[in-house]
Design a protein that fits this description.
With 219 residues, the protein is mainly beta. The protein has three helices and twelve strands, in the order αββββββαβββαβββ.
Length: 219
């Protein structure tokens, strides 16, 4: 979704080369020390997203609990997104480049937000700060904490590039913030096109988990 659309043959070849080289650099394993669960609620129901993090590590893991044996790793060191799938003992992995920052900021520039502070609150015992972002299309309320031992900052070394321009003046990425709650209201669309959703951190605990990449055939 975040990859630019282009008919330029050179750009396509560069992406293919990037995928091939990234798979060669894939580590043999990833170690994690924290489980961070977000519960997403949409009009279709609820789904748990289990993130796995390690303080200081430039990668994160994600397991979506949908009855499918699938695990994703976003690796900031290799600038690669790895998807691992195990179907009946057949292990397949894909490797694609992490990109899309320019599109994120471009979309943000086209939809300027008005940003205001929300009253602080506690979530799972953590003191959280709140921000509200609103434009003609969306109303977003978000709470984050700087008290957790982990954050997503280490995954992306150039974390400032991951933050929309409208938020940079209101959000200090050096603090190591971790999002604990987000409610997004789609103000224009209704029915199936409605993108309204809520994400809330329902679990944050230490864990000892190692994901091994050996045995997976990279496609």
């Amino acid at each position: 979704v975040l990859e630019p659309e282009t008919d330029n043959k050179k750009a396509k070849n560069e992406r293919k080369a990037s995928k091939k080289s990234s798979s060669k650099n894939m580590p043999s394993s990833y170690e994690f020390e924290y489980q961070y669960q977000m519960t997403m609620t949409t009009s279709q129901g609820k789904m748990n997203l289990d993130y796995f993090l390690k303080p200081g590590a430039s990668y994160l893991g994600l397991k979506m609990n949908q009855g499918v044996d699938m695990f994703m790793v976003m690796d900031g060191d290799t600038n690669t997104n790895y998807m691992f799938m195990n179907s009946g003992g057949t292990k397949i992995a894909t490797a694609t480049s992490l990109n899309g920052n320019d599109i994120i900021n471009s979309a943000n520039d086209e939809n300027d937000y008005t940003i205001t502070d929300l009253p602080p609150k506690k979530i799972l015992g953590y003191n959280c700060l709140g921000k509200q972002m609103e434009n003609d299309e969306y109303l977003i309320k978000m709470y984050y904490t700087t008290e957790a031992d982990v954050s997503f900052n280490d995954v992306f070394k150039s974390s400032n590039d991951q933050i929309p321009d409208a938020m940079k003046a209101h959000f200090n990425s050096d603090e190591g913030a971790l999002m604990m709650y987000m409610d997004m209201v789609d103000k224009k669309n209704k029915g199936k096109r409605n993108a309204s959703s809520t994400m809330e951190c329902t679990l944050l605990k230490s864990t000892d988990f190692t994901f091994k990449t050996s045995g997976y055939q990279v496609m």
